[in-house]
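User: Fold this; tokens only.

Assistant: Input:
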Amino acid sequence: MTTSDMIRELCEKKNISIAELCRRIGQTPQNFNKKLQRGTVSFEEMMEIAKALGVGYEQAFVLPNGEKIQIGK
């Protein structure tokens, strides 16, 4: 599943449009759709999306013992 697929599925589950998501994160639909097509949505933008929609988002390396190495921690 691509980042674009994840964002689209999240919007579907939260019952909002991509345009509404863009409004909530302060981006234009044109600019954000280009990022979705190129697959260039940054970690920071993913965190903004999670905050705007009231969900969690994790990006981490997970060691065999369960320890996580992640940005911002």
